[in-house]
Amino acid sequence: MVKETDSLREAVLRALKGVVGTYGIAVIDAQRPGEIVVARNGSPIVLGLGEKEMFAASDVAALIRYTRQVVHLEDGELAVIKADGFNTFTSDARETAKEPFTVDWDAGHYDNGGYEHYLLKEISEQPDTVARTLRGRIDDRFHIAHLGGLNMDARETRSFRRVKIIGCGSAYYSGQMGAQLIEELARIPADAEPASEFRYRSPVVEPDTLYVAISQSGETYDTLAAVQELKRKGGRVLGIVNTVGSAIARETDGGIYLHAGPEVSVASTKAFTSTAVAFALLALHLGRVRDLSPADGRRICEGLRRLPEQIKEILTLEDRIKELAKKYADSPGMMFVGRVRGYPVAREGAQKLKEISYVHAEAYPASELKHGPLALISPELPTVAIVPDDELLDKNLTTLGEIRARHGRILMVGHRTSEAADDCIVVPKNEVELDPILLTIPLQLFAYHAAVALERDVDRPRNLAKSVTVE
Ligand code: F6R
Question: Candidates 58, 174, 248, 268: which one to mutate for ligand 1, based on the most atoms within 8 Å of Cβ?
Fold first, then answer.
């Protein structure tokens, strides 16, 4: 029971004893407007420290126009804030000590830079954001990656026998790309799983498995809960995170920051590519303490360095991609197919299209088409086929033939044109392992222009939130 004599702090502490579930709340007493009590359990609360003013928000993005000095509350923590300061304490009223830290994003990151939508701005920023993810992390002497944030020495890095990657939505698809990079370059069995499923299935946590959690926001509740479950069972968890100081970054044992700058548009683009690049660095790192040769290490380092320029080249295809997006946007649905390296590209392409244009989009591994979904193929359901020039090229071209034979229209995204397709988008070639990163970019532009053609709310698609901080 809350008593009338309680201070606001005591009243909130007392009331929270009866609260179950996740929350991030701010409470104010109309009689004493000079203080606010905030409390966090599961959902983020960030304090902003100003000049004789204090702020509370659920995301650093909301604070950045006023201050860059922030303090993150932990789960179960509360704070009393007044204009001249704050103090924090636990749910059993023990004071806690918090060090503010300075956010290195500024308000400039949050304007649209003259672009019509944040999404297009963020797609266009990718030559820079990928360069930032790479900066200072490639060693040309030993052809290795410098990833000091992993907090692991060579012996420990060698000790893992499996890699398990978790994330949600696009983060999960970038994790699938990461798993392939790790298997190919480091020859360690690796797979990715949606964190939202992983956390509910009482996962078996193995001591010789390296767990990697991915999150742009660092606040996705399902991913955070999966990390907490892993930690509780003694798992070693790294984070690949964009937002410095976020809950997942704090909860993990080490990791890689993306340095992609804030992502404002709800649909993830630059964080996706930077995550895939971070995985390439991690795979190089894991590979070079194992059997990846210096020559292959060098090949990957050189390939990584070429990415920013090649992304610039792909961005020059925008007008052509816009035409194609208009041509296909009024289809009732689209199929996306890719084989092995192309499959996560297809999944992410379908994800982008469905979430911002609301066109039904389904991704399938190319080889699975004949096991069922081929029945859907008709002139009304065009296919976007991811066809890299790799050892599976012939197989992929055969799939195009199968679709064609069912009168399906095909938009091929790859490194060459083909008569088997109705339309082609040709992107520059990199190393086979890194090509999926580049193949993703035209699909972002395709989804963007399809959404614009259909007059959708591109940056704030219906029913979606930027940070999913609820279960
Ligand atoms: C898709 C998208 C979502 C997020 C997912 C995870 O464009 O934005 O699928 O990728 O909600 O978010 P983070 O990476 O913040 O954990």
Answer: 268
Among 220, 348, 352, 467, say which to mutate for ligand 1: greatest number of ligand atoms within 8 Å of CB. Answer: 220
Ligand 1 — pocket residues by CB below 6 A?
168-171, 215-217, 220, 223, 267-268, 351, 355, 467-468
Give the integer Cα–Cα distance in Å for 356 and 204.
36
Question: What confidence score (pLDDT) does residue 50 get?
Answer: 93
Task: Collect the ranges in the chain with pLDDT lower than 70.
Answer: 1-5
Enter the pTM of the model.
0.92
pLDDT at residue 22 in the model: 83
Supply the pLDDT for residue 155. Answer: 93
